[in-house]
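Hi there,

I know you've been waiting on this one. I reran it after we fixed the sequence typo, so this is the corrected version. Both the input and the resulting structure follow.
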Amino acid sequence: MAKKAKKAAKKAAKKPAKKAAKKVVKKAAKKVAKKAAPKKAAKKRKPNAAFMAALQPSALLSEVVGSKPLPRTEVIKKIWDYIKKNGLQDSKNRRMINADDKLKPIFDGKNQVSMFELAKVVSKHVK
């Protein structure tokens, strides 16, 4: 009986070692395959033309960003510059923007607007 138990123990010890060796070989083969694959040239992304189109700000918005036509991205950027310059971000909840006299009419009379609503609010004031 003791001999059978020893043989069974040896077989059990050999099996995991063989499986582990096979896994290592498979991983090495995958790495070689990945390295051998030719790399594609990185394509430069084209900016979306809708974002780059110049939009005319309304009279209310032009008090903050200026009266020249600007792309939507620049309008948002200038509003953020104005917010930071005047310290209008809420001190406790930085996601909220407090309105001052110039921003209140743009924010539809609200005292506070979420930064995520900013693009929606601005879209009403550009053509």
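Quick highlight: Residues 7 and 28 are 32 Å apart (CA to CA).

Best,
R. S.
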